[in-house]
Each structure stands twice: as structure tokens, then as C-alpha cells.
Design brief:
The chain has about 950 residues and is of the alpha+beta class. About 30% of the residues lie in helices and about 25% in strands. It folds into five domains: about 150 residues, Rossmann fold (3-Layer(aba) Sandwich), CATH 3.40.50.1010; about 120 residues, Beta Barrel (OB fold (Dihydrolipoamide Acetyltransferase, E2P)), CATH 2.40.50.690; about 80 residues, OB fold (Dihydrolipoamide Acetyltransferase, E2P) (Beta Barrel); about 300 residues, no CATH class; about 90 residues, Nucleic acid-binding proteins (OB fold (Dihydrolipoamide Acetyltransferase, E2P), Beta Barrel), CATH 2.40.50. Strands 22, 23, 24, 25, 28 and 29 form a six-stranded mixed β-sheet that branches. The protein has a five-stranded parallel β-sheet with strand order 5-4-3-6-7. Strands 8-9-10-16-11 form a five-stranded mixed barrel. It comes from Adiantum capillus-veneris.
Amino acid sequence: MLQSKAFMKKTKRGQVVKVVREHYLRDDISCGALCCPSCDKEAACLSTSATNILILDTNVTLHHIDLLENNAINDVVVLSVVLEEVKNRNLSVYNRVRALCSNPMRRFFVFANEHHKDTFVKTMAGESPNDRNDRAIRSASLWYQKHLGKGPPILLLTNDAENKRKALQEGIRTETVQTYVESLGQPELLDLVSQVADGDVADMEVEDLRPSKKKVIYPEHRPMSEITSGLQRRIFYQGKLRVNRYNTLEAYVNSESIDEEIIIYGRINMNRAFDGDVVAVELLPEDQWKEGNVLKLAEDEEEDESEERVGLAPDSADAVPHLSKRKSGDLETKVNIRPCGRVVGVIKRNWHSYCGSLEPMPMPAGAGGTVNALFVSSDTRIPKIRIQTRQLGNLLDKRILVAVDSWDRSLKYPAGHYVRTIGDIGDRETESEVLMIENDINNRPFSEQVLACLPPLPWSVSQDDLNCTYREDLRHIPVFSVDPPGCKDIDDALHCTALPNGNFEVGVHIADVTNFVLPGTPLDDEASQRGTSVYLVEQRIDMLPKPLTEDICSLRADVERLAFSVIWEMTSGAEVLSTRFTKSIIKSVAALSYVEAQARMDDSRLVDPLTSDLRNMNSLAKIMRQRRIDRGALTLASAEVKFEIDTETHNPLDIGMYQIREANQMIEEFMLAANISVAEKILKHYPLCALLRRHPIPTPKMLEPLIRTAAAVGVNLDITSSKSLADSLDNAVGSDPYFNKLIRILATRCMTQAVYFCSGELTPPEYHHYGLAAALYTHFTSPIRRYADVIVHRLLAAALGLFKLPVVFHDKVQLNSIAENLNFRHRNAQMASRASVELHTLIFFRNRPTDAEARIVKIRSNGFIVFVPKFGIEGPVYLKEREKKGQPPPKKDVIDWVVDEEQQKVSTRDGKKVYSVLATVHVHIQVVEPQPNRTKLELTLFA
């Protein structure tokens, strides 16, 4: 049966057009119930003994996904009309629903009601899309009731008062989520019920959480139509809100339409926006803009009511600190004034589940009923969240997961609901789980479907592999690998053989992961979603199952392995005469650590072939590295640290800066060369769908803090090009041996992130990698731990004519989606790694108060931010004693500190004490708990 389905669509040019599509209807679509005598049972999963078969409306599905994921909820029909609307409104929830529907251990069935002739409904004249979809849900519910007859009863779950009223009129059994969960007789499930109101039916039932008519705390958000108009007229500015990690009462919005960072000061001006939300901002009058040097380090304690009132009204004198002015002749000029604004609307929410703990509180009388509690996130940028719980006694000493439901303008804090318990507060495994959840790291075991894609163990190179016409046998070549100590997932190896003509044959051999990870398989889908392996201090979260990462694909010593090789002929001056690519079979002669490789090269007594190859390769690498630097490549630095971990407790025993050796740089150089060679090859063959990696040029505005800091210590940085900046950094030397590295660390922080992209989406000049000074770049050399490299291996194989190009490369939308996910996963992996370092640093210093040398990296009016090189620690140091909860206020600070923004220093007014940027200070490091259940490192000055 054929129906025409029409809808209106707005084009990119703003024109509204009518789209008519053919819609096929069938009568043989299964209902999914095992008790049904007439429908196909192949995909059926709804139990014959079910108390109810549940049908959900869209809002219930969107707002109660945490409840639906609980094992107590089963025998659920997910209508296609609901699934499509969820997909359009929240892709994350959609993926979670799809996971439930594909889980054989859960009884969730997708019913294609939009394609069944008895459940499809046409849009009536004047009917809104929402009303039409609600009618489609009721139509499907009624059909199920009639279709199953005496089978399990059908129950429609909806919190929408009007939808419920109409359902009851039509003879459909219906309940709210709250009443249904109450009927299950499992009180703990009530904690999972979302506190968002979908209509009049949803009742908060707790006086404390009801919006108060007496008091309005936050301004009303503007309607989306007004926001859209305001953005077009440049009255409002759109951007992502970023809350200052050192001061949660300050946030920043970078907007493409204004060449300036807008400061949002105070909770009221943030207007219920969370860190990461896309917001619309209105600028405050200029007389309320802030001077740059007034930005303060945060106080650790929770803001009180006086702080909440900061910026309450745009015309209030207390909205922002008064501006400082300098007299120039008869004129007063504003100095370092930065625009301030307020949030007028949230365009896209960044709400998700947050890890933290409940604020300590006494157990109420008659424990066991519903109580209100305040949740404090581990992330200080997130406001407290009010939840209702029936298990307070079990949660007070636990890390828990809480989801945000709503934030009414009459409530100081957002409302949310309990999701699950993670573990005991302070436990290392619990805190590691927290950082993985916060960074959306998938550390779940691989499914049976994924593991079924792996070849059986033990695996070895087969005769078919040896006979393969496109695979070259390179087992006779002395290939070796150089990696960090203890590395098991070895995905790259090299060789460097002297040729009779005086040149060298140099090869980079990469694990042939795509021989085992085939497109479209569950293994490939899982790797695509994970995007990258994640390296934490004490563990590795693999992108691929361990049989692949540590055995089948790992290029271990003395075993035959499949590889994808890039082989050059080079002169002794590192000039490339020829390049070829081939699938290969190799047998590594040695798996060295960086320390071992460096020791071999440095020991003049060693003259064996492997050591000679290492030295030849290192000589070539030095020439290649200098050539890159001459071309403008930047040599940056980061504050990487390494831990010595106790093998039994997994706690840190020692901490220190990571040491870079020539061996590290040698390997890096040839990996870079291989990636560039592959980038050139795949772009030549596939100019519209090559996956490349670019590093955008930093804007002068981004480099301004670096330039100001360098100028304050007498260093002039030329940023006109990467070459000029590289030369300037080379010349930035001082008597302090750590000075140059510190400047490079600060330069690294001013850079944009390198990102993956599809070549067809940008013009060739935009392909440029600023940091490497390379016209083209990609990732090819780590397919065991990066899915981007898997994509590139497939492109290269197709470019060589070995395999057909997978269909995904013909779908621009899907390819761009893959690139976006890779960027997202890469950033999250970096953040998780840093969080793991911070966690283990806290554990290390928990019982080890220490004194150390530090460098000042930022100056503020009440202190400065320092970096401790020995431990890679960065944090605030206060110049004024702060008031602490539960203690008498400190004596009034008689020292008046003055900030010189231009010279980047803070001093007493009499000039007796001066602290300058990049100067050395000594700090005391200790672990403190300024707020319950929220420990941190405290850095204090000592004489």
C-alpha cells in the first residue's frame, strides 16, 4: 500500500519548500510478542508472562532513559515514530535506546508503526507535528490492545496530561511514570524517575522543589524566535560557555561574530547555563565591563547569597567591579577593558550525567522515606543539583551518578535524579571510574558479537598469507621496534639497511589491522565508536580486544606478523629518491625500549648490525628533523609526567617529569615521514574523501597571552609565521635552564587542537598542519589504538588497487560524522589521561606534604598560578588568607597588593615584595579538603 507523505523543509538559502515522499505501508510487520499466534516469531522478544507490555511516548523515552536501562524494566515496545523523534532531539539517548533494543538480554522491541497499514496516521489539517505523533502513539497502543486480545495487557506510559486524557477517552490503559514505578514495589527505582515535568500530570510532590511564585531568581530565557532574530541583528552573540576552572563564578563565551572573549560574571548572568552549553549572550553596557587585571582566582568555598547577587541586574552598581582608569593629560582612558555579558537563552544544552557525592547532612527522623539532598559534582564547574532519594543512608559516603532534569528560574539549583552508585569515596578504582564516566570513555567489556569477529588463538601467519600475490615477504629484513618500556601493543617497526650504492633503504612497518577488522562488522562498528585507545596512569582502555592489540597484530620480536609498509630509498643526506607502499610479512628481530635503544647508540663498544642500523637511522632522523625545523615546524613542549606504580596496590610510589631522548625523536621523525607520504598518496587518488589531519593557524588573539608574558621577561616573539615563531622560541633562553621549556609549554597552550577532516570539505590551503609546517598530514602509523589510522589503511589499500573502497567513503555525511566522532573521542581520551595524572598526583601527595620549586605562569590580583616542573603540577597560590568554613575569619589583610598588567607582576604598594611572571618561587604542596568529599592539592608560598 502506497501513501504520500508531505512536509515542509527549510533550505540552506532560507527558502521553505514542500517535500513529498512515497510512504509504503504493509500488513505483515510483526508485533514482537511471543504470545501472538499470527505474527512472525523470529525477532519476537516480548514475554508471554509479562505483567504489562509497555508503550512509551517520546518525552518518557527522552527523560527516563536511566530508568529504562534498569533491568527491572522489560517488555517494552519502542515505536518507530518515537525512535525517530528521539533521534532528532537527542542522539545520545537515541543510541542508548538502540543499544537496549539490540541487547538480547533485554526485552525491548522496535515496532515500525509508521509503516504498518493499521497504525499509520495522516496529519490532519491544522495539527502540529507533536499532536500528530501523540495521536500515532495512541493509535499504535490501541492496535496492540486489539491485536493481542487476551495476551499481556498494554500500558501506555505518558506524563503529558492532554495525551493521557485522550488515551483514556479512547479506551487505552495509561499511567504516568511515577505511578507505574510505584506499582512495581521497588522503592529504590523511584530515585531513577526524572524530575522534569512533561505536562500537568508530572507532580514534583515535594514542596521544596516546586517553582515558587514569590521569588524569581533568574531572568527568563528569551524565545528561540527572538534569539534567532537577535543573532541576525548582532544584538545577541552565540558561543559555547566555558566556566573558569579556577573561579566558577566566571565564564567565557567565544563568538565568531565578535573578535573578543565575552566574560559572564556571576551565577545570575550565567542564567542557568552549564559549562559546554551553546548560549546566546547579550553584552552589558560598557560602564559595566571589567578591567583585565580584576579577574581573580576563585575562592574554594561555595558562594554565599551576596556572591549570588553579583550581577543581579544590568543597571546595578554591584553587577561588576568598578573600572580602573588612568589619566592621560585631561583625558581618562579605560585600561584592558574586557566586554561583559549575560546569557539570554540556551541554544543547545550540554547536560549529561555527572559524578560526585551528596552534601553531608544528618539523617532525617523516620529514615526510609523520600528526602531532598544536594548533589555536589566532582567537577567544580558544575552547580549543585537537588535530587530526591529514598536511600540517603546508603549514598552519603558514595560516589554516585546524577542526571540533570530541569532548572526552573525560581530555583537556585537545578533538579535532577539519581542514576547509580559508582563506589566508595576516595577509593582509587572508584575515582578512576569517575574520570572515565566524566570523559565518556567506554570501558565496558567487548560483546560476544565483537569477540566472534576475531580469529582463533593461537594465531600465526598462514600459507595463504605467504602465497598472497599482493603481500611482500620481508622476513629476511632485520626489522626492529622501539617503544616505551613494557609496551605490549606494538603497532610500528622499522628497518634501515645500507645499500651498495651508498644510499639507505628505510622502512616503516605498521601492523596490518585491517586484515582482521573488516568494514561493517561488529568489531569495526565498536572500534569506530570508541575511536581511540585511552592511556591512563595504571591501565589502558583498548579500542580493540586484547587478542588483537597484544598478540595477533602486535609486532613482537621473533614472531611473524602481517604489516602495511612504507619503504623509501634515501641518500645519506636524507633525500627521498623513491617511495613505495606494500602489504607485507615481517619478523622483528628486537623489541627495544627507548632506554635500550639509546644505550645501544651511545655505547661505542657496540658495533653489531642492529646497533649500526639504529645509528644510521638516527643520523637520517636528525637531518630530517632539522629540515622540518628549517621549514617552520615548531618544537613545543608539554608537562608530561611519569609514575612508578606499586604492582600490588596500583598506587603511585614516585612521580617525575617524562624524559625525551634522541631515540624518542628518531622514532617520531620516521612516523611523521610515513604519515606525510601516505597523506600525499591517498589525497592524489581520493581528493574528495581522504581522511586528513590539520592544525589550524593560531590567531594573534590566541597568542596574545604568550606574547605578553614573554615581553614581560624581555623576550620578543615574532608570530608572523610558524618559522618566525620557531626561531623566536629557539632564541628565548635565559640563565634558568628550565626557562626555554616553560616558554614552549606556554606556547603549546595557545595553540588550537589538531583535528581530523574529510578532504572534500575544505580547500587545499586549509589542509595545512601549522605545528609540523606540513602541507599534508594524516594518521597511518597506529591502527591498533586509533580508528583514524584504520580508515587511512583502507584508503591506501584502495589507492594501491588491493581492495575496493568501502561504501562509507561515498557517503559524505557519514564520513564527516566519523571524523567528528574521532575528534571528540581524541579530546576525551586526552582529558581522561590528564584527569588520571591529577588523580594519581593527589594519591601520591595524600600522605607526603612536600616543598618544591615552582614558576609563576599567570598573575592575578589576589595571587598567581604556578607550575611545578618536578611534578608537572599547576595550581593557584593566594597572596591573601582566605576565609574557611567552620573557622573564624582571618585577620584583615593589611598588605595592599597592586597588579601591573603590562609588566606581568604583582607587588606590595611599597614595592618591598614583588612577584613576576616566570619567576621562581618555593611552594608547599599538600592535600586538603576545602569542601566535604572534594579533595585538592593546595599550594602555598613559604619563605
